[in-house]
Write a structure and sequence with these properties.
The structure holds two protein chains of two kinds. By secondary structure, chain A is α+β, with helices and mostly antiparallel strands. Helix content of chain A is about 30%, strand content about 25%. In chain A, helix 1 packs across helix 3. The two termini of chain A are about 30 Å apart. By secondary structure, chain B is an all-alpha fold. In chain B, about 70% of the residues lie in helices and about 0% in strands. The chains are: A alpha+beta, B mainly alpha. At the A-B interface, helix 1, helix 2, helix 3, helix 4 and helix 5 of A face helix 2, helix 3, helix 4, helix 5 and helix 6 of B.
Chain lengths: ~210, ~190
């Protein structure tokens, strides 16, 4: 995966390590790190800083029962958390978000399809399927959007994005991503607000399609 | 102690003994060292003493159960426990499981590279010194960021987080690991 050229910014990795990144973006960061050793290493650096902050925290004595309670549990049987492996082009964190279900593509028109993985008050994360040569029509953003390419590639005003690349777009960016020729482009896209599609769908339909 | 582990910190020794031998004595030492620090760390984010102790217990139990995943070539014990702690705190406060990257698929039985482990520990030591030498207000920003009190927008507005040295060190270490893996596969 040495071909990855668009990475996660440092501040986002730090926020991911500290746990302040909204869930939808955390899915994208965890997926990208699964594909990108460069960012895996950068994340390790942030975790090291976190470890130093932890180790240098003022020690507060713990109650004597805590250790006994803990040691009493060491032999207790437990169910290990499930581990989600990569499946084809989909990294482990995407498989985790799918929770074992099959993909359910819903058509958005013009060959574009989506499958919403999770959605809450802080944002949503979805898979997008864009046929080669197809534009995801011009849209601006109310907030922040992170798009990770899982298959194929797309290009827009800011450059070309191939497998493993992440594009981060904020409300200042009006862009028109177009899927390149070749395989259909499949992306993992997270937003913290509804997209404003300028031409693609009438605004009134957006709640229905949940874009 | 195995000769190849000379130069490792106490914490790394304990963690390896826990990982490889489910060594309870080592786990008790790790607990005595980390539990009070963990409690202090958790209480800094405004959590009361009783709930902080619950989280400490939960984190230390996770450390015991996930010990097999500990790899001193890639993470300091404190860095590893830091991430477990933040993950548990998020799981508890947001009632949702935090997405984590895939584990690297490498043979856990592969030869230890002591120079890599010690090198990482030295770099972490230098980083710790650098943090200690910061002006109090700079140090406070770092603490806030890694305690989870700043959004990523707030973090990106702060410049001068001193990460350069440690990043290049770990990156070098990863390069070496990748070469080792390649050699093993040939």
């Amino acid at each position: 995966m040495s071909a990855v050229t668009h990475h996660i910014p440092d501040a986002m990795l730090a926020a991911y390590a500290a746990g302040t990144l909204p869930h939808a973006f955390a899915v994208v960061v965890a997926s990208h790190v699964s594909l990108c050793d460069h960012c895996r290493v950068a994340l390790a650096a942030h975790q090291t800083v976190g470890g130093v902050v932890l180790e240098d925290s003022d020690a507060v004595p713990v109650s004597s029962s805590l250790k006994d309670n803990l040691f009493a549990q060491l032999d207790a049987p437990f169910v290990p958390e499930p581990v989600y492996d990569r499946s084809g082009i989909y990294p482990g964190p995407v498989m985790e978000a799918l929770k074992g279900r099959a993909l359910k593509w819903k058509t958005l028109g013009m060959g574009v399809r989506q499958d919403i993985l999770t959605e809450d008050a802080h944002g949503s994360v979805r898979l997008l399927y864009i046929p080669p040569g197809q534009a995801v029509p011009d849209h601006g953003h109310n907030g922040l959007e992170m798009t990770l390419v899982l298959q194929g590639s797309f290009s827009d005003e800011t450059g070309r994005f191939g497998v493993g690349d992440v594009e981060i777009a904020d409300e200042d960016l009006e862009h028109t991503p177009i899927a390149d020729a070749g395989d259909p482009c499949i992306c993992l896209a997270a937003t913290d607000a509804r997209l404003r599609f300028n031409a693609f769908l009438p605004r009134i339909l957006q709640p229905i399609f949940r874009i | 102690m195995p000769p190849e582990c000379i130069g490792y910190s106490d914490q790394t020794h304990w963690m390896i003994a826990i990982r490889d031998h489910q060594d309870r004595e080592a786990f008790a030492k790790l607990f005595d060292y980390f539990a009070p620090r963990l409690k202090g760390f958790i209480m800094k984010s405004g959590i009361g003493a009783a709930q902080a102790e619950e989280i400490v217990q939960d984190v230390m139990l996770t450390v015991w159960r996930k010990a097999a995943q500990f790899d001193p070539h890639r993470a300091q014990v404190s860095a590893w426990i830091y991430q477990i702690t933040r993950n548990r705190q998020i799981d508890i406060t947001r009632k949702e499981s935090r997405p984590v990257p895939e584990e690297l698929k490498e043979d856990p039985g592969s030869e230890a590279d002591a120079s890599q482990v010690v090198g990482l520990e030295q770099e972490a030591g230098l980083l710790r010194q650098a943090l200690a030498n910061l002006k109090p207000e700079q140090r406070e920003i770092i603490e806030k960021a890694y305690l989870g009190e700043l959004t990523h927008q707030e973090i990106s507005a702060e410049t001068g987080l001193p990460l350069g040295t440690i990043k290049s060190r770990i990156r070098l270490g990863m390069e070496r690991l990748r070469h080792e893996l390649k050699d093993l596969k040939q």
